[in-house]
Specification:
Length: 356
C-alpha cells in the first residue's frame, strides 16, 4: 500500500482544505509520510487541544488561514499554487451545531464547495487536476429502515448539516456534468461513515465525550444509546480517499466512471449502536462507567448503514481494521497523549502499521 501511494502522491502538490481539523490533521500527516507537497487551507484551528498543533504540522507544510466562503481569497490560492490534487474537507461538520447555526453551515458546506468548483471552472488549466469532495454518509435520504445505503440511493438529509452535504453532492454533480465533461478537471465525491480515532476534540462527538469523561474519571453521559452508526477508523476513510485518487490519477481502465460518488465504510460488524461502542471503549480503557440521559428534541438519525460494495468491487480498497482494533488504536492514541508521549511519533507509527 505504501509503495502504491508513494508512487502516486510523492512530490504532488496537494491542496487540503480543512487541514487543521481532525481528519485534515491525519490526512496531512499521512501525506507527509508519502512525501507530498501540501498546501493547507482552513479558517482556523478548530479545537484546543488540537491534533494539528500537537503534531507541529504548521512548520511541515504551506499553512494558509482563509475562509472557503471567500471566493476571491480561495481563487487566488488556487491560481497561485495550481495544485495537482485538491482534497476538500473544510466544513461545519457537526449536526447539533447545524441546528444552532444553519445559515453558516449552508454557507460553508454548500457555497464553500461551489467556490472551489467555480475556481476550477474559471481556471480550467492545461494540466490535469483532481478534486475529491468529502461529503458524508448523512447525505442519503434516511428512511430509518434496515437498509445499507448505496451510491444509487436517493439523497436527502433531515437536518441542516446532512442536507448541506446533500447540496454539496448535488452541486458537485451539476458542475461535473455541466463544465468538466471532456475537461482536464476530474471530480469525485466520497461518503464516509462515522470516523473515529485519536486526536479528535470536536464538540458533540461521542468518542470525544467518552475520552473527556474517562480521562477525568467522570461518568459518560449518553444521549442516543440506540443510534446505530458505521464506525470506522479515520485511516480507513483516508486510505479509501487516496485509493480512489490513485485510480483517477493513473487513469486506470475501468468499467465504471471514477468521476462519481463512492462510499467508504466499515464491514457490517462495525455497524453497532452507541451503547455498544461505549462499552467497547470502556473495556479497552479498562475502567469507566456511563449513564443514559433522555434524548433532547433535536432529531438525529437513528439508523445509518453504508453499502460499500461499489468501492470493494471497483477499487482495490477494503477495510483493514475490525471494530476491536479500531477502538484499540483510538484509546491507545489518547492514552499516549495524556501520558505526554511523542505524538508525532505515535501517529506516524499508527500510519506505518496501517500501511503495512
Ligand atoms: N468526522 C466524521 O465522523 C465525519 C464523517 C463523515 C464526513 N465528515 C466530513 O469530513 C470533513 C472533515 O471533518 P472533521 O471531522 O475533520 O471536522 P473538523 O471540525 O475537525 O475540521 C473542520 C475543518 O474545516 C475548517 N473549516 C471550517 N469552516 C471553514 C471555512 N468557512 N473556511 C475554511 N475552512 C473551514 C476548519 O478550520 C477545520 O480545519 C468534513 O467535511 C465532514 O463533514 C466527517
Amino acid at each position: 500500500m505504501l509503495k502504491k501511494f508513494k508512487d502516486c502522491f510523492q512530490d504532488k502538490k496537494i491542496l487540503v482544505t480543512g487541514h487543521t481539523g481532525f481528519k485534515g490533521s491525519w490526512l496531512t500527516t499521512f501525506l507527509l509520510n508519502l512525501d507530498a507537497d501540501i498546501i493547507g487551507f482552513s479558517k482556523d484551528i478548530p479545537t484546543n487541544p488540537s491534533m494539528f498543533e500537537v503534531l507541529g504540522l504548521k512548520s511541515e507544510i504551506n499553512h494558509i488561514i482563509g475562509d472557503i466562503r471567500n471566493y476571491s481569497k480561495l481563487n487566488d490560492i488556487i491560481n497561485q499554487h495550481s495544485p495537482d490534487i485538491i482534497i476538500h474537507l473544510a466544513a461545519q461538520p457537526i449536526v447539533r451545531e447545524s441546528y444552532l447555526n444553519p445559515v453558516e453551515t449552508y454557507e460553508t458546506n454548500v457555497m464553500g464547495t461551489i467556490n472551489l468548483l467555480e475556481s476550477l471552472r474559471i481556471n480550467n488549466s492545461k494540466n490535469e487536476s483532481f478534486l475529491l469532495n468529502v461529503t458524508s454518509d448523512k447525505c442519503y435520504e434516511n428512511k430509518e429502515k434496515n437498509h445499507a445505503y448505496n451510491e444509487e440511493d436517493s439523497l436527502g438529509g433531515y437536518d441542516p448539516y446532512s442536507s448541506s452535504k446533500t447540496c454539496s453532492e448535488i452541486a458537485t454533480a451539476a458542475y461535473r456534468r455541466s463544465f468538466f465533461t471532456n475537461s482536464n478537471v476530474n471530480v469525485a465525491t466520497a461518503r464516509a461513515g462515522n470516523v473515529i480515532g485519536g486526536g479528535d476534540w470536536s464538540k458533540d462527538r461521542i468518542v470525544v465525550d467518552c475520552v473527556n469523561a474517562l480521562f477525568k474519571d467522570e461518568t459518560i453521559v449518553l444521549r442516543n444509546p440506540n443510534a446505530i452508526r458505521p464506525w470506522q477508523h479515520v485511516l480507513e476513510a483516508l486510505a479509501g480517499y487516496l485509493t480512489l485518487l490513485t485510480h483517477m490519477i493513473n487513469n486506470n481502465e475501468m468499467k465504471i466512471d471514477l468521476n462519481s460518488s463512492w462510499n467508504f465504510g466499515p464491514y457490517p460488524e462495525s455497524i453497532v449502536n452507541v451503547e455498544n461502542l461505549v462499552k467497547e471503549l470502556i473495556a479497552e480503557y479498562r475502567d469507566g462507567q456511563y449513564t443514559v440521559k433522555s434524548a433532547d428534541e433535536l432529531h438525529e438519525a437513528n439508523l445509518l448503514e453504508l453499502d460499500i460494495n461499489k468501492s470493494l468491487e471497483y477499487l482495490d480498497w477494503k477495510p483493514k481494521l475490525n471494530f476491536k482494533n479500531t477502538i484499540k488504536m483510538t484509546v491507545e492514541w489518547y492514552k499516549k497523549f495524556y501520558n505526554n508521549d511523542d505524538m508525532l511519533k505515535a501517529t506516524n507509527n499508527q500510519i506505518k502499521e496501517y500501511l503495512k
